[in-house]
Design a protein that fits this description.
- The chain has 523 residues and is mainly α.
- The protein is built from 20 helices and four strands.
- The protein has one domain: Sodium/glucose cotransporter.
- The longest helix has 49 residues.
- The N and C termini lie far apart (59 Å).
């Protein structure tokens, strides 16, 4: 190990120690009740809420997935994805945040499944149980994608064994999440959000300098067929091993693939997922006061737009600096790390690549906490032991954390996993399951419990069917599964709600009361 590697490792160790200390700092307060452990007692300020929501959302795909996709395929796919995500972020904060904060406070819910159950006065908790099971399934996959990031990071930096370092990163996340609960997660997310932003800005500025300026970069990339176009996508020529072919130090490309209107709509549909992302929605529920939502929204949008733009630029510029270095999409997801090592001194490089750990750990901790709270609060306490104490619920939550940890490690065991692909599958599952239901729960008085169940099952089921059976057919069927699944969930909610009996008066009265409490600016 070189002196530079030692300084990189030192910076990463400082980061690890810091996040664990935050967990211990918040441990006593968080463990005082389930409300504190799962939602921070609804006392989180606007800055922490905004950066926590976005840092937990922008997992390893921000610093590895997006740059890797840009490096390997050019601007179109990653560009339209980012545009869809930016629009989805804004609309989610604008349409959902204030309403969900107000409604969840009125009905006393502290989890997303709990909110759905109380929204429909579901005494048997069927809605909440189904929601908790869906979260358990897709968050296990999502958590695994974050662990992939940890393993790839240390493997790329030091050549250390991928599996061993993936497990190590997973255990660190598990430790501070288990100890400190929601407040620990939010506080570390705030720090991690700042670190991620710093890392992106430093690397994008350094990479432009390293490439010899914008003009040189554009000139080089313009020679790659379809690389900078938003209406076509570059296609790498691959050998029998799936690696891009190289000739005289230049990567080889086939005729670019057309990026038509249907593909653009499909790619932008990533933004629909935000309406159903529990790790973001729970931040809306935990903010101190709904009057602070507007401030949080502005902070979140600025952070998201600048961060995604910088991430894409790193991938594109990286191709001009190291055109033949990373020859498949899985390897391309290391471009951020490779550039950081090439341009930065040891300790600074360590701080910057800690941004990758920040991205993956902030997300993984949220997934673990939300899954634990959903199972403990909405399955254990609501079905198996209705008189369970807060301490018993917390124990079950931590047991669930351990189970999700183990399953996430299994998902991440394959070191050739492509982070962007793993994330897209889980994103579609959660977005289609909860997105339509969240919107209808907040905006349509006539939504019934049966409609809610139908919407969740239809959305989740269509993701599985479309991804595994229909999408492989290609052509018009090759669209991102979130789009048809989201539409299917919406249709199921409307049709089943209209075919079933109107909600009972207490349910309608709750909705009317909530609507009376929502400020005119949010209606």
């Amino acid at each position: 190990m070189t002196t530079g590697d030692i300084f990189v490792l030192l910076a990463i160790l400082v980061y690890f120690i810091f996040v664990i200390l935050i967990g211990f700092i918040y441990a006593r307060r968080s463990n005082s009740s389930t409300s504190e452990y799962f939602l921070g007692g609804r006392k989180v300020g606007p800055w922490f809420t905004a950066l926590s929501a976005e840092a937990s959302d922008m997992s390893g795909y921000l610093l590895m997935g997006l740059p890797g996709l840009a490096y390997f395929s050019g601007a179109a796919d990653v560009g339209w994805t980012a545009i869809g995500l930016a629009i989805g972020t804004y609309l989610n904060w604008l349409l959902v945040a204030k309403r969900l904060r107000r409604y969840s406070a009125l009905n006393g819910s502290i989890t997303i499944p709990g909110f759905f159950s109380k929204r429909f006065h579901d005494e048997k908790n069927l809605v909440g149980t189904i929601a908790a099971v869906i979260i358990l399934i897709f968050f296990c996959v999502y958590t695994g994608s974050c662990f992939v990031t940890c393993g790839k990071l240390f493997n790329a930096l030091f050549g250390w064994d991928y599996s061993m370092m993936m497990v190590f990163g997973a255990l660190i996340v598990f430790l501070y999440t288990m100890i400190g609960g929601y407040l620990s997660v939010v506080a570390t997310d705030f720090v991690q959000g700042c670190l991620m932003f710093f890392a992106l800005v430093v690397v994008v500025i350094g990479s432009i300098t390293m490439a010899g300026g914008v003009e040189n970069t554009v000139a080089f990339l313009s020679d790659i067929p379809g690389y900078l176009s938003m209406t076509s996508m570059s296609v790498a020529q691959l050998d029998e091993n799936g690696l891009q072919m190289v000739e005289n130090g230049r990567p080889l490309f086939d005729v670019p693939a057309e990026y038509g209107l249907l593909t653009v709509i499909s790619t932008m549909s990533w933004g629909l997922g935000y309406f159903g992302m529990p790790q973001v929605l729970v931040r809306f529920m935990g903010i101190r006061d709904d009057t602070e939502i507007k401030t949080s929204r502005r902070i979140a949008i600025v952070w998201v737009v600048i961060s995604m733009f910088a991430a894409i630029m790193i991938g594109l510029i990286g191709r001009s600096i190291m055109p033949d270095r990373l020859l498949n999409q899985s390897a391309a997801e290391s471009i951020f790390i490779v550039l950081s090592q090439a341009m930065l001194p040891g300790f600074i490089c360590g701080l910057v690549v800690s941004g990758i750990l920040a991205a993956s750990m902030s997300s993984a901790s949220s997934y673990l906490l939300i899954t634990g709270s959903s199972v403990a609060e909405n399955i254990y306490r609501s079905i198996f032991k209705k008189d369970a104490t807060d301490n018993q619920v917390l124990i079950v939550s931590r047991i669930t954390l351990a189970c999700v940890l183990l399953f996430g490690i299994l998902v991440a065991w394959d070191e050739n996993s492509v982070i962007f692909t793993v994330v897209s599958y889980a994103w579609a599952g959660l977005g289609a399951s909860f997105g339509p239901l969240m919107l209808f729960s907040l905006f349509w008085r006539r939504t019934t419990k049966q409609g809610a169940i139908a919407g969740m099952l239809a959305g989740a089921g269509m993701v599985l069917i479309w991804h595994n059976l229909i999408k492989p057919l290609g052509g018009v069927f090759g669209i991102y599964e979130l789009l048809p699944a989201f539409l299917c969930g919406c249709i199921a909610i409307v049709v089943v709600s209209l075919l079933t009996k109107e909600p009972e008066k207490p349910v309608l009265d709750d909705f009317d009361h909530y609507m009376d409490e929502v400020p005119e600016t949010a209606k």
